[in-house]
Amino acid sequence: MIEMQGVFKKYPNGVSAINGIDVKINPGEFVYVVGPSGAGKSTFIKMMYREEVPTSGTITINGVNIAKLKMSKVPIFRRNIGVVFQDFKLLPNLTVYENVAFALEVIEAQPKFIKKRVMEVLDLVGLKHKIKMFPSELSGGEQQRVSIARSIVNSPRVVIADEPTGNLDPETSWEIMKLFEEINARGTTVVMATHNKEIVNTLKHRVIAIEDGRIVRDEHRGEYGYEN
Predict the structure, then answer these.
(1) In the chain, pLDDT over 90 holds for what percent of residues?
(2) CATH number of the domain enclosing 40
(3) Residue 110 domain-assigned?
(4) More confident: 83 or 228
(5) For range 40-62, the mean pLDDT
(6) CB burial class (10 A; 0-12, 13-18, 19+) of residue 171?
(7) Residue 70 class from Cβ within 10 Å (0-12 exposed, 13-18 middle, 19+ buried)?
């Protein structure tokens, strides 16, 4: 599903964020990416959805080496992955329904299919009753639920989440994690960068630890391993 081989990333200012990563993530896995601040986690995650491009090495997702992908092909590639951010990134002038539907409208899906699919995913995240509300009228947890619904509406094989509970209170964080568990149980690969020690140590999955741009630990059903 996801494979990195000999990946390095050096920024123009001379900072080396990733220093030789080799890793393979199989279909259906749930993987936490952990490590101290500045370790390279965000760059590692961003390279998976082509926000950052490696200086060298290959990154293969769904059989495509995205390190060599032309910019004109990036939007097509991103249709097959879902991305969830810490700050939600919802469109403020669109309703809950419209934010989720937008992901299908850009690929010119049929209106009847859009309506059916959007209502399905909003039902899954528990927001079917708030389809006409705007992001500013929702709590942080509800906004993140909309973001998750948008990320899975295209039925992606991979969902990449960058600190998805970072701006949420503990109770809401657990509710959001239940959604990710449900998405993974349906067969979707989930890769999640997180600082949440309690979640990692309670909901056991594979843990990839990054320090100084290198993978220093890769454990099946691992633990967080750092002090927050």
Answers:
(1) 86
(2) 3.40.50.300
(3) yes
(4) 83
(5) 94
(6) exposed
(7) exposed
pLDDT on residue 115 = 96
Asked, for residue 227, whether it belongs to a domain, the answer is no
Give the pLDDT mean for 162-186.
Answer: 94
Residue type (1 letter), 110: Q
**Residue 214 domain flag:** yes
Give the residue numbers spanning the domain of 157.
Answer: 2-219
Q: What angle do CA 5, 34, 122 make, to 5 degrees?
A: 95
The residue type of 220 is: H
> Which residue type sits at 8?
F
* 225 located within any domain: no
Average pLDDT value for residue range 180-187: 96
Residue type, 82: G
Question: Domain count of the chain?
Answer: 1
